[in-house]
């Protein structure tokens, strides 16, 4: 079977590609000419150049494929150009899924995100049925993914495209070359640069479990359904404590009120705009707004329907810290 993967130069896409190769599939990956090559160099795949926002460039990529895993996304919690994020995440998703379906792909797995779901105010885990609207989305990334999933669902309803949707939580583990916003936090914590924390929480999942969940969704998922691919709910305090212990450091003890950090985030964003900085500031206003709720989620549906079986979150953190250390991110 010939499988096309988008986003294979990135964190989750590379993990999905590794899982497919381990299963013996012939993997083709779509990559822009400007995509980083580090992850691609470790994969025995066919590379086709193209751009999700250029529908015509996708013709060669989808030629003769049996399946598509559309993992690619512009994943940043801050950007100088929100419009480009919407083009990539919304228009790009429609372009590649439509092209794959017209090329005869018999099954398509679309990687959405728990970012499209509204966390419960009381900290209890949200699931696939939690009522959520566009007004609940914080920042351009979340809104772009919300609009993208809406557009994908509309395409399925209109054309019958054979799409199964997966919603990863917070993937952590080896291969985070960029790194992602969460990966940056782990690197900073591992190097002792996070002296304090805010009262929030994340659902931590090993990236290789999330990748396997994609394959399980392909095998067992129902067309049009979505499945949260999560792991273990953890307070940020506990995440930082695990990272500190793995590095032989003392964990941060100071809990900062959210409002105390707002001026710092405002200043960091203002400086980034004034200097036309593309790199995301370490702390942003949108990230602080998100952190006011514990972003906890349930993977019960995926466990029952797909056989999804994530390992403990501490293993994901351990593997991430080990990989970052081995690859020069920790100094």
Shape: globular
Helix percent band: 40-55%
Q: What class do helices, strands and sheet pairing give?
A: alpha/beta
Give the tally of β-strands.
13
- The portion of residues forming beta strands comes to 15-25%
**Which oligomeric form is depicted?**
single chain
Largest sheet: 7 strands, parallel
Q: How many individual helices?
A: 11
Major sheet: arrangement of strands: 3-2-1-4-5-6-10
Query: What Rg, in angstroms, do the CA atoms define?
Result: 19 Å
CATH-defined superfamily of the domain at 2-177 and 205-233 and 296-312:
NAD(P)-binding Rossmann-like Domain
Instruction: Give the terminus-to-terminus CA distance.
Output: 42 Å
Low-confidence stretches: none
The top-level CATH class of the domain at 2-177 and 205-233 and 296-312 is: Alpha Beta
Mean pLDDT: 92
Task: Please state the second-level CATH architecture of the domain at 2-177 and 205-233 and 296-312.
Answer: 3-Layer(aba) Sandwich
């Amino acid at each position: 079977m010939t499988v096309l993967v988008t986003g294979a130069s990135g964190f989750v896409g590379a993990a999905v590609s590794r899982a497919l190769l381990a299963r013996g599939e012939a993997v083709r990956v779509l990559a822009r000419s400007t995509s980083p090559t580090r992850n691609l160099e470790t994969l025995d795949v066919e590379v086709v150049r193209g751009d999700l926002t250029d529908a015509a460039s996708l013709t060669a990529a989808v030629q003769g494929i049996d399946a598509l895993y559309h993992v690619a996304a512009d994943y940043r919690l801050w950007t100088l150009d929100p419009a480009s994020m919407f083009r990539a995440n919304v228009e790009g998703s429609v372009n590649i899924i439509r092209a794959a379906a017209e090329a005869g792909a018999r099954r398509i797995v679309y990687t959405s995100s728990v970012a499209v779901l509204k966390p419960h105010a009381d900290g209890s885990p949200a699931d696939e049925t939690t009522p959520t609207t566009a007004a609940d989305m914080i920042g351009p990334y979340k809104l772009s993914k919300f609009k993208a999933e809406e557009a994908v669902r509309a395409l399925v309803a209109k054309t019958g495209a054979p799409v199964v949707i997966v919603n990863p939580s917070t993937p952590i583990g080896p291969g985070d070359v960029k790194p992602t916003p969460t990966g940056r936090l782990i690197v900073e914590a591992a190097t002792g640069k996070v002296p304090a924390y805010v009262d929030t929480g994340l659902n931590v999942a090993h990236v290789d479990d999330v990748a396997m969940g994609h394959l399980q969704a392909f095998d067992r998922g129902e067309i049009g359904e979505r499945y949260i691919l999560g792991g273990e709910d953890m307070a940020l305090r506990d995440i930082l404590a695990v990272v500190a212990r793995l590095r032989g450091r003392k964990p941060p003890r100071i809990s900062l009120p959210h409002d105390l950090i707002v001026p710092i985030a405002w200043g960091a964003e203002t400086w980034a705009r004034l200097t036309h900085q593309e790199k995301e500031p370490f702390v942003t206003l949108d990230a602080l707004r998100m952190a006011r709720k514990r972003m906890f989620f349930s993977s019960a549906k995926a466990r029952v329907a797909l056989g999804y079986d994530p390992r403990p979150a501490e293993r994901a953190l351990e593997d991430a810290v080990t990989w970052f250390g081995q690859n020069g991110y920790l100094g």
